[in-house]
Each structure stands twice: as structure tokens, then as C-alpha cells.
Specification:
By secondary structure, the chain is an alpha/beta fold. The protein is 46% helix and 19% strand.
Length: 400
């Protein structure tokens, strides 16, 4: 004979019902994972955009040239070994090359301007000496002045394995400055090849004007990473909410949790006029009526308590009378709602029925009320689940 709910009878098929209920409640939550993925992807794209566009480094322009070094036959045999990449990095800082480059910059559009800490710049190419560094103007605006330090910072020289080929790269945040520095350095290097006895010539093989440096766009990676991270965080949140879920959804889980007889289910929400819903409601009403007849004593009032809202007790009383009114009259019981849970002195009740709202966070309150009833020695006839979702129960139990 099958034992009532709450008597440690859940094994085999009963356990499957409990697991099916867990899966039915988890499935709608899993549908939120794509939403978490979308939110994470949008946040990832926004963070990447802010980090690399709004607050990222400014644009840079880069131009370059390839030069060929022809060594003089009269040069010492070890000259080729001397003019390596490290040597050229030092040579471009020397006056032989850098002064020529700076003078070339002067000829590219200087206008006479008086500097507060230096001499006037004339049309003959006289440089301006400031207290800190040599200042050269490409235009008449002193804010556009180029210092020797900026030129050296913009220029990079590479020497491949063939020491006769030199790669010159100029990088600057201004395209015109980059082109001007590139032209000045090429002039200085080719002139150095003409004046230095070690070389027959330094010839420019090819030159590329400054172009905008395009950094690798990893927005797609940021979107994918943000989406996956958002989905993982969302799944963790859903599992955490599931672990913290204090609600009761069906008679099986209520009987297992509270170790008490579950008298029945009272449907909630608006009445569905469909024939299937009406048939389910009649079936649950018949089950509740039979359980009340079995578990209520023959005499005395029934105390109806609720773990939900205070006013739910009166509504539950009315629904009990509607569902099992004949049984209550036959037992000569009067259903009473307790507005306050101050049970003191003589109790005019023979039984108590505890109502628990389905799907609401009321499990802990229900456990507290059961403990109080046990303390005052008021027998609990059973538990009634009200405001039940018939669609959920139909999915849980299947077709009748």
C-alpha cells in the first residue's frame, strides 16, 4: 500500500517526479542564457570600444623608405662591419646627420618668428636656439615646432642580414610631420653618403609616404569573450537562484520537504474556460474533498493558517468550502481563519490546515508555522497548496 506524502516513501518513480519538476522549472530559466550572452557581448564590445577608441592611444601615421649603401672600394675592410644597426642608431643622433635633417625641416616652409627664449628665424635657414632644445618650425605657428628630440623619437632604423640595405621608418601622430621628418632624414642620409669617404653613395630605393597605422581590430574577439563570460555568469546566477529557491511547486516536493500529508491543490489565477482546465480543476477538487474527509476529525473547528499573505487565509477558507463544502458540513466542522498567530490558552480548534502558496518564497515561513503548531500541540491535518499553476502540474503529471 502506498504511503501518504511525507512518510519517506519517495523512491523509484516518485523520485522521477521530483526530478521532472526540477527540470521543468529549470528549462524556462535556461532560455535566459542567450539573453545573458547578448548582454555580455554588448558589454564586451562597449568595453573594447572605450579602451581602444575613446580612451585608447591617438592615431599614428607611419612612413618609411628602403636605402641601399654602396661602400667605397678604398674603404677599410672592416668598415662594413662597423656600419651595423646599432651604429646607425647612434649616427643619426650625431650633428653630421641630425643637423642636416633639422636644416632641411627649416627649408620646408619657415616664416620669420620671434621666440621668447631664442633668436629670430630668418629666411636663410638660421635655426632657433631655445633654452631646452633646438626648435624648428614647419609653419609660422610656434605650437607646430619640431624639436630634435621629437625627430629622434620618430625615427627607427632596421638593418636586415644584408648590411647594404637599410630600412628607415618614421612614426608620428601627425601625417605632415611624419612626411617632413622622413624627407629630412632621407636628405641627411643621402648627403652623409656623399660626404663620408667610406661610401660611394647611399641611394633611396623606394619611399612610402606616411599612412595611418591600422591596429588589429579585435572587436569580434571581445564580443565572443564577453558573450561567453556573460553566459557563464548568467548560468551561475540561475543556479544560485535555484539553490536559494524557497518556493513549493507541487505536492511531491511539499510532502518530501515538510513531512506532512498534502491534502490537495487549489488552483489559482483567473479561471480558464477551456475544457481541459475545467477537468483538471474538478479532479483536484475531488482529491481535496476526499483528503479532507479522511484527515479531519469528526468534531471541532478547523484552524486555517497560511504561509502567504495574511488575507490569503480568508480566501483559502472560501475555496475550501467551495471545493469540499459537503465534507465540512458532514463533519460538522466550521472553517476559521486565524488573523493573528498568537495561540495562547485553550485552543478551540480540533485540527489545523496549513495553506502554502505555490511558487512563492514561503517555504521557510511554512516550516516556522508547523514548528509553532507542534509546540502548542495542535494537530495538523495536512497541507493545502493554493494558487497552483495547472499548466505546470499538467506538464508534470502528463495527460490523465
Amino acid at each position: 500500500m502506498r504511503k501518504p506524502y511525507g512518510e519517506e516513501a519517495f523512491s523509484g518513480t516518485d523520485q522521477r517526479v521530483l526530478l521532472k519538476g526540477v527540470y521543468l522549472r529549470l528549462l524556462p530559466r535556461l532560455l535566459l542564457i542567450p539573453l545573458f550572452f547578448l548582454v555580455g557581448a554588448l558589454l564586451g564590445a562597449a568595453v573594447y570600444y572605450c579602451a581602444h577608441v575613446i580612451y585608447g592611444p591617438g592615431r599614428k601615421y607611419a612612413g618609411g623608405a628602403r636605402l641601399y649603401l654602396t661602400f667605397s672600394k678604398a674603404a677599410a675592410p672592416d668598415s662594413k662591419d662597423y656600419y651595423n644597426a646599432w651604429t646607425w642608431k647612434e649616427l643619426i643622433t650625431s650633428d653630421e646627420i641630425l643637423d642636416v635633417a633639422m636644416n632641411r625641416l627649416i627649408t620646408q616652409g619657415l616664416s620669420s618668428a620671434q621666440q621668447a627664449s631664442g633668436d629670430a628665424v630668418g629666411a636663410d635657414g638660421t635655426t632657433v636656439k631655445t633654452q631646452d632644445d633646438e626648435l624648428v618650425l614647419i609653419s609660422g605657428n610656434t605650437e607646430n615646432g619640431i624639436t630634435r628630440a621629437e625627430v629622434l623619437e620618430s625615427v627607427v632604423i632596421h638593418m636586415p642580414s644584408d648590411l647594404r640595405v637599410m630600412m628607415l621608418t618614421v612614426t608620428n601622430r601627425d601625417r605632415e610631420r611624419a612626411d617632413a621628418i622622413l624627407d629630412a632624414m632621407l636628405t641627411a642620409l643621402t648627403g652623409y653618403g656623399e660626404t663620408n669617404a667610406v661610401f660611394d653613395e647611399i641611394r633611396v630605393l623606394e619611399s612610402t609616404p606616411a599612412l595611418l597605422l591600422i591596429y588589429e581590430d579585435r572587436t569580434k574577439n571581445a564580443v565572443i569573450f564577453g558573450g561567453v563570460l556573460g553566459a557563464v555568469i548568467g548560468l551561475f546566477i540561475l543556479l544560485l537562484l535555484g539553490a536559494m529557491d524557497d518556493a513549493v511547486y507541487d505536492p511531491e516536493s511539499a510532502g518530501r520537504r515538510f513531512d506532512a500529508a498534502v491534502l490537495g491543490v487549489v488552483p489559482g489565477g483567473k479561471k480558464d474556460p477551456s475544457e481541459k482546465t475545467a477537468r483538471d480543476a474538478e479532479r483536484f477538487a475531488a482529491e481535496l474533498s476526499a483528503a479532507l474527509e479522511k484527515h479531519l476529525t469528526d468534531h471541532g473547528q478547523v484552524a486555517v493558517l497560511t504561509a502567504g499573505k495574511k488575507e490569503d487565509a480568508n480566501d483559502l477558507c472560501a475555496k475550501l468550502l467551495e471545493s469540499a463544502g459537503e465534507v465540512l458540513k458532514k463533519k460538522e466542522c466550521s472553517v476559521s481563519a486565524l488573523d493573528e498567530m498568537h495561540l495562547t490558552g485553550d485552543l478551540p480548534f480540533a485540527n489545523a490546515v496549513l495553506g502554502i502558496p505555490c511558487g512563492k518564497q514561503a517555504g521557510a515561513r511554512a516550516e516556522h508555522l508547523l514548528a509553532v503548531l507542534d509546540t502548542v500541540k495542535l494537530p495538523v491535518a495536512g497541507i493545502v497548496l493554493y494558487d497552483a499553476d495547472l499548466r505546470y502540474l499538467r506538464c508534470l503529471y502528463g495527460k490523465w
